[in-house]
User: Which sequence fits this backbone?
């Protein structure tokens, strides 16, 4: 049976996954009540788990080091209560080859080597090159679907990664290039980065070692 996470766990974890986000964005990440989210953020701030900062007109929340440790402790406890650690480890093992392919696909979307310039930027004027990248993203998506299903089957908070990735890939296929690797939209790269962070946080492993 799929385990639903407690709201306070989801709030703290949403901050980690988003990196830096305002309260409405934190609430939207797991479809939480905005008022409950705002209260949980203030509680977490009082505990030293999150910090609020502003840059010009940008305001948001981020995790502190204590908050990262707290998030991982909560996720580890949840994982052991559900008895899903083996499932997460198996999925993570299967995820790593796809992760390498995704990273290469994003590199190929950004760069198109030319004679004498292997780091030439991709200006998206070569339809065959871009079509190859999009075909690879479709293959990666096919590999993601069963993994996402296994994750969502044990922990509800993993639901939706495959659907978000598919939606981004469709927009990229329609000619919206930033939906492959854009940081300001829910692009393929952004969804994938978030899933990777979710996996390593849940398993309590170092992301650099996981790469």
Assistant:
């Amino acid at each position: 049976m799929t385990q639903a996470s407690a709201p306070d766990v989801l709030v703290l974890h949403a901050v980690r996954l988003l990196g830096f986000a305002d309260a409405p964005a934190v609430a939207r990440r797991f479809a939480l009540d905005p008022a409950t989210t705002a209260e949980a953020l203030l509680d977490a701030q009082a505990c030293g788990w999150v910090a609020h900062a502003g840059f010009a007109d940008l305001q948001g929340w981020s995790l502190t080091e204590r908050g990262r440790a707290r998030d991982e402790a909560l996720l580890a406890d949840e994982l052991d209560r559900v008895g899903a650690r083996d499932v997460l480890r198996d999925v993570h093992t299967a995820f790593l080859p796809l992760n390498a392919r995704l990273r290469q696909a994003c590199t190929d979307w950004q760069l198109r080597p030319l004679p004498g310039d292997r780091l030439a930027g991709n200006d998206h004027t070569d339809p065959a090159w871009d079509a190859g990248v999009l075909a690879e993203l479709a293959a990666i998506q096919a590999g993601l679907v069963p993994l996402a299903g296994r994750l969502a089957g044990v922990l509800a908070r993993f639901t939706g990664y495959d659907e978000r990735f598919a939606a981004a890939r469709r927009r990229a296929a329609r000619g919206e290039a930033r939906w492959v690797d854009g940081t300001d939209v829910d692009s393929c790269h952004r969804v994938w980065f978030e899933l990777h962070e979710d996996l390593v946080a849940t398993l309590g492993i170092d992301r650099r070692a996981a790469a």
Notes: The longest helix spans residues 127-154. The CA atoms of residues 173 and 201 lie 31 Å apart.
